[in-house]
Design goal:
The protein is of the alpha+beta class and 365 residues long. The protein contains 9 helices and 21 strands. Strands 9, 11, 12, 15, 16, 17, 18, 19 and 20 form a 9-stranded mixed sheet that branches.
């Protein structure tokens, strides 16, 4: 029996937390803080006392068939044509899930993806169903669960996903910069000599990669992509990706954000190419603040690079056990996600739940 529990006011008070701060305690096999409590552990035990945040959601156990539990998302099979995708507040770095969730992170990822899907719908359709279908499904769950999943749940059409990730790079950064320093190329594509770190490329370039089931994805040439998907499909995915990036980057620049690079995933639904997963989020993209951009150095970012930098600074060897994040790093990361959401959408992230109260929800085996 899996259990998902919202901490009641007495338990929150015993942890020294304000009574309007909620968190989840759960069982399972995901990372745990150093001191578990009788088979469960308190995520708010990390002392992530963000007074304006919603309850951090680390793991779900809903009464549907669990199809996959990834680094961030829990995916349930609803029927032959639909999946329920829950974007949690889990955060991964260097291919490991951290034991510290980032409050509201999942809701930012979903909210931004929906924002971009709507804005860019003239370029490509997406896998989302009508909102009314999701609402009808969630109405079957207890009220407390509906509130906890608000802004995190997506009912999507099943797609035959292409086994290639479509990456577009507009600036010389990350692994692209590392490769360029050695041989003046990015993913084998030659570039002019003399470019500097973080410099904008004359034109965005398309650099696909294979989707790895474990470990890191592998960069491949466009010719290799053609071998996998065929000439026509590869050309369509390249053209769609470049157009999505160009339109998205142009809009974001006007909002004070430079999109250095990003990745898209596509699939087929009823013979039509659709975009799946997330779109132009801090997880799938490298976001830089325009006002602090300076060629020739590494850039400040609105993504989980804050966490990567911290883990590097403390000398973590990238092997278990995975260290928990201190308060200041968790807060900075959450603030970065909320900032990019507001900059791009022009709105604050709406509250997910008003008064969840004290509840314990158990799930069938």
């Amino acid at each position: 029996m899996r259990t998902v529990k919202l901490l009641n006011p007495a338990r929150r008070k015993s942890l020294g937390l304000p009574c309007d701060i909620l968190g989840y305690a759960l069982g399972g096999t995901l990372p745990r803080p150093a001191t578990p409590h009788a088979g469960t552990y308190d995520l708010v035990g990390e002392r992530m006392t963000h007074t304006e945040s919603n309850p951090p959601l680390f793991e779900t156990a809903l009464p549907y068939k669990l199809r996959a539990r990834g680094k961030v998302r829990d995916i349930y099979e609803i029927d032959e044509r639909h999946l329920l995708v829950i974007t949690t507040d889990r955060l991964s770095a260097f291919d490991h899930v951290l034991p510290t969730p980032i409050p509201d992170r999942g809701r930012v990822l979903v909210g931004l993806s929906h924002f971009w899907m709507k804005k860019l719908q003239s370029v490509v359709r997406n896998h989302l169903t009508e909102k009314s279908q999701l609402q009808k499904l969630l109405a079957e769950l207890p009220e407390q669960d509906q509130q906890a999943l608000n802004g995190r749940a997506e009912l999507v059409r099943k797609a035959d996903v292409f086994p290639v990730e479509c990456i577009v790079r507009g600036y010389l950064a990350g692994s692209g910069w590392a490769e360029y320093q050695k041989q003046s190329t990015i993913c084998g594509q030659p570039l002019p000599s003399g470019l500097k770190r973080s410099q904008k490329l004359s034109e965005p370039i398309f650099t696909p990669s294979t989707k790895a089931t474990s470990g890191h994805d592998e960069n491949i040439s466009f010719e290799k992509m053609i071998d996998i998907l065929g000439t026509e499909t590869s050309g369509k995915l390249r053209d769609i990706s470049l157009k999505l990036y160009t339109e998205g980057a142009d809009f974001a620049a006007g909002q004070g954000i430079l999109i250095a690079d990003t990745k898209f995933e596509f699939g087929v639904v009823d013979t039509e190419i659709v975009i799946v997963d997330e779109v132009l989020t801090p997880d799938s993209s490298r976001f830089w603040p325009t006002e602090k951009y300076e060629i020739g150095r590494d850039q400040e970012s609105f993504d989980k690079q804050i966490v990567r930098n911290y883990l590097t600074e403390i000398g973590w060897n990238r092997e278990p056990p995975v260290p928990a994040l201190p308060d200041d790093i968790a807060t900075k990361t959450r603030d970065a996600y909320l900032t990019v959401y507001k900059k791009l959408t022009g709105m604050n992230l709406p509250p997910a739940c008003k008064d969840v109260g004290s509840v314990s929800v158990t799930r069938p085996r």
